[in-house]
């Protein structure tokens, strides 16, 4: 009998497994897919020699995560490559907003808004080593650095549409919109200001790196670390019911509430089932990967050096595209997140070739292929882009859920990042990782701190399990 069974080998499942194995427990991870890693896989999706990140590609959260700080990533074969420009956002007329290096450097590129930018971010970036670990922990207990974190939280409670009123230029306002739109919330929603500021703070504090060779290297590192503590991962083993699990002292589930309710069946008390049933999922994504014959010919030169490009034009245009998605429509000009790892990692494609990664938001469960609209948006800011396409791979939101059942309706964050669900995720229990079933814990991104590759949900769940043991 193992001490701990983990269902699911996403970064959170593996972080939980490593934490328990290090504490001396015997650990086994059961993964349904043939390859471990959940949202952290890299595959030749298009042509031989083109290595694409199937899901996550850009890793400010991993770079800032207290969980990953405990691993000797370099010794485990992981090299983070940080582009000079973290992210850029092209505007019509060959202009672009960009965030790079220090607050001063970015403020310098924002002209009239330079001073306002400094005032918004300078103090928070200085205090990032205190604030970030608090934001990556459950927000229910008093944070470790209450003053710094409360100051950040209070400024960020505003919708990003109000934060943007500090700025007069299209560039500064667009930069905020692009950072906030990662949340898949309306840009008028409370706390979208905090998300925008958090992503910008991370960009200044740790950069927006990619993993050399692809995100899967992170999973290779995590499985190696787990093995060094005696744990293992069994792939190709879908768990259909908790009743089918081998006996163990604790069970940690890297799944979302809907799947948990299904797996637990009648064992779960009705009250817990209805509380978990109220958990809200966000919109989906349509993801596209391209094999290109050369680098994207962005009109605005900062975009050529940026690892991530936020495409959607001005603040108002991004806001209206996102509002359409939330109203259940597919925008003609969607907001798109695009990553070009080739700016710092030549290993992703054969010589002189490039990979490009991108997605746009779509209504939950969408079966619409948005590749044409995404390509039109890229072409708008990089004329000639379409001529470079050698091959593409497309996954609609419905395909995303078929690929990984944790992407309910194509939601890549394990549940909507509304203010309420950021604080009370997945349900309003004091310890968010415990469930109504003794010895059974949730450890996925449906628990705090939410979506992203940081392993902190797994770490939190493992600590709860260890405390109970
Ligand atoms: C297109 C896309 C782009 C993204 N971009 C980024 C990015 O750039 N940066 C970033 O930080 N984050 C990004 N993310 C989000 C990130 O990938 C997720 O937040 C993260 O992977 C969540 O980790 P997890 O361990 O909670 O779940 P997952 O990574 O989803 O892993 C869950 C695992 O559990 C397995 N599983 C589920 N049910 C069962 C079952 N019943 N039996 C057995 N196994 C089961 C699944 O197969 C899967 O392997 C992106 C996600 C997507 C889809």
In short:
The chain has 469 residues and is α/β, with parallel strands linked by helices. It has 19 helices and 16 strands.
Description of the molecule:
The chain is of the alpha/beta class and 469 residues long. It has 19 helices and 16 strands. The chain has helices at residues 11-22, 60-64, 66-69, 103-108, 114-126, 128-135, 146-156, 160-163, 170-180, 192-205, 216-228, 257-264, 270-277, 301-305, 315-326, 371-381, 397-403, 419-423, 456-468; strands spanning 2-7, 27-30, 42-43, 52-53, 80-81, 85-91, 95-100, 210-211, 232-234, 248-253, 284-292, 306-311, 336-339, 354-362, 389-395, 440-442. The longest helix has 14 residues, at 192-205. It is globular, with a radius of gyration of 21 Å. The mean pLDDT is 96. Bound molecules: flavin-adenine dinucleotide. Flavin-adenine dinucleotide is lined by residues 7-13, 30-33, 38-40, 55-59, 61, 238-239, 254-255, 259, 285, 287, 359, 400, 404-407, 412-414, 444-445, 451-453, 457.
Given helix and strand content, the structural type is: alpha/beta
Quickly count the helices: 19
The percent range for helix content is 25-40%
Based on DSSP secondary structure assignment, what is the total number of beta strands? Answer: 16
Strand line-up in the sheet with most strands: 7-6-12-13-14-11-15
Question: What sort of overall outline do the alpha carbons produce when their principal axes are compared?
Answer: globular
Average of per-residue pLDDT values: 96
**Main sheet properties:** 7 strands, mixed
Q: Bound compounds, please?
A: flavin-adenine dinucleotide
Return residue spans where pLDDT drops below 50 for at least 5 consecutive residues: none
Distance separating the two termini: 16 Å
Report the sheet-strand fraction: 15-25%
Radius of gyration: 21 Å
């Amino acid at each position: 009998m193992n001490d701990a069974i983990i269902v699911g080998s996403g970064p959170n499942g593996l972080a939980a497994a490593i934490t328990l194995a290090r504490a001396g427990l015997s650990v086994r991870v059961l993964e349904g897919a043939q390859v471990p890693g959940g949202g952290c896989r890299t595959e030749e999706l298009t042509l031989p020699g083109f290595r694409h990140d199937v899901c996550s590609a850009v890793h400010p959260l991993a770079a800032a995560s207290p969980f990953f700080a405990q691993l000797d990533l370099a010794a485990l074969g992981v090299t983070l490559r940080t582009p000079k420009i973290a992210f850029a956002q092209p505007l019509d007329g060959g202009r672009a907003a960009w965030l790079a290096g220090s607050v001063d450097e970015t403020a310098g590129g924002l002209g009239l808004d330079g001073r306002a930018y400094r005032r918004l971010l300078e103090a928070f970036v200085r205090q990032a080593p205190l604030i970030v670990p608090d934001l990556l922990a459950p927000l229910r207990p008093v944070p470790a650095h209450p003053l710094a974190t409360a100051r950040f939280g209070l400024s960020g409670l505003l919708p990003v549409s109000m934060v943007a009123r500090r700025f007069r230029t299209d560039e500064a306002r667009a930069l905020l919109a692009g950072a906030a739109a990662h949340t898949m919330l309306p840009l008028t929603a409370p706390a979208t200001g905090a998300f925008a500021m958090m992503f910008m703070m991370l960009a200044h504090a740790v950069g927006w790196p990619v993993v050399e060779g692809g995100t899967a290297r992170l999973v290779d590192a995590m499985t190696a670390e787990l093995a060094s503590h005696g744990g293992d991962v069994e792939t190709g083993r879908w768990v259909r019911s908790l009743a089918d699990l081998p006996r163990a002292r604790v069970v940690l589930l890297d799944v979302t509430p809907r799947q948990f309710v299904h797996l637990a069946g009648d064992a779960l008390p009705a009250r817990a089932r209805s509380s978990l049933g109220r958990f809200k999922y966000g919109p989906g994504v349509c993801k596209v990967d391209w094999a290109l014959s050369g680098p994207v010919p962005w009109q605005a030169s900062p975009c050529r050096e940026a690892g991530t490009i936020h495409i959607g034009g001005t603040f108002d245009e991004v806001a209206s595209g996102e509002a359409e998605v939330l109203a259940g429509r597919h925008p003609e000009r969607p907001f798109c997140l695009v990553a070009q790892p080739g700016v710092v990692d030549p290993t992703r494609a054969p010589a002189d070739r490039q990979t490009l990664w991108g997605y746009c938001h779509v209504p939950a469960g969408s079966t619409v292929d948005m590749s044409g609209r995404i390509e039109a948006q890229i072409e708008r800011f990089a004329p000639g882009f379409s001529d470079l396409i050698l091959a593409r791979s497309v996954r609609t939101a419905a395909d995303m859920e078929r690929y990984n059942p944790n992407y309910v309706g194509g939601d890549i964050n394990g549940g909507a990042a509304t203010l309420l669900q950021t604080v009370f995720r997945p349900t309003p229990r004091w310890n968010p990782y415990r469930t109504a079933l003794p010895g059974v814990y949730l450890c996925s991104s449906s628990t705090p701190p939410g979506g992203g590759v940081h392993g902190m949900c797994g770490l939190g769940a493992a600590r709860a399990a260890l405390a109970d043991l």
